[in-house]
Design brief:
Elements lengths: L1 H12 L4 E11 L4 H17 L3 E9 L9 E10 L17 E6 L8 H8 L6 H7 L7 H9 L6 E4 L4 H5 L8 E5 L10 H8 L3 H7 L4 E7 L9 E8 L5 E2 L1
Parallel strand pairs: 1-2, 6-9
Antiparallel strand pairs: 1-3, 4-7, 4-8, 5-7, 6-8
Length: 244
């Protein structure tokens, strides 16, 4: 539940918006009331933490559509942003602008099909399990603090499905690309182990997983917002939109 809410909050945060309200949808072949209560309670707690109203939602039982024991959870979020604060601002981006990142808490809500495959025949300890199941981190407070402090944000990218490779290009103008310095940070667990177990090349690893980076900001050169770490810069457009 918290994963879903935080993911949605981050997805509108990159437009500069703050959340107003959230609606949920929970469906299964046969609903277990105790499970539904746990999920909705988790969503309510995440909404409360960001000042977002959980207005209500929908439940559905659809045997024959969902596999027994499976649970489908979806959500819709609505937020607001002043027109002058809308992000990204591609017209203000230039070669040499800095890319800074906020760390992820784990895989967030992506890459779990591969994770389940890689763990199918491997024993895992509690520490690894905790890292794999850590809730999707919400970046509303950090980004809000940056804006209050006057950090000149030109764009934000929420690193979800597709990783840095697919998410960063969405906020860049056609004439610019992102150059990522893979040595700028130490790739944390569980990603180092997952990449090794899967024998993944760097380009694929950075497409499947967030690799420890949950949110990326484009800022002028020389600016380093509190709590962030530098991961690269903008360069003139080349064959790939993201160079690792």
């Amino acid at each position: 539940g918290a994963d879903l809410v935080n993911h949605c909050v981050n997805d509108i945060l990159v437009q500069g918006a703050r959340p107003l309200f959230f609606l949920d949808y929970v469906a299964a072949a046969k609903l277990d009331p105790a499970v539904v209560v746990k999920v909705v309670t988790s969503m309510a707690g995440a909404c409360r933490a960001v000042g977002c109203a959980l207005l209500g939602g929908e439940t559905a039982e659809m045997p024959g559509v969902y596999a027994p024991g499976a649970l489908d959870v979806a959500g819709t979020i609505v937020g607001v942003v002043e027109r002058g604060d809308v992000l990204p601002r591609p017209a203000e981006m230039h070669v040499g602008d800095r890319l800074v990142a906020l760390p992820s808490s784990g895989p967030h809500t992506n890459g779990y099909s591969l994770i389940r495959h890689l763990l199918a025949d491997r024993p895992i300890d509690q520490a690894l399990a905790d890292r794999l199941l850590a809730p999707h981190r919400c970046y509303l407070d950090e980004v809000g603090a940056w804006r209050r402090e006057g950090v000149p944000l030109k764009g934000l990218a929420h690193i979800t499905g597709g990783g840095l490779v697919d998410n960063l290009p969405r906020i860049l103008p056609d004439h610019l690309a992102a150059e990522i310095d893979g040595s700028a940070w130490t790739v944390p667990e569980p990603f180092a182990s997952l990449v090794a177990w899967g024998g993944l090349e760097a380009q694929e690893a950075f497409r499947v997983f967030n690799m420890g980076v949950g949110m990326v900001a484009v800022v002028p050169d020389g600016v380093e917002p509190p709590g962030s770490f530098p991961i690269g810069r903008l360069i003139g457009r080349v064959d790939r939109a993201v160079l690792l």
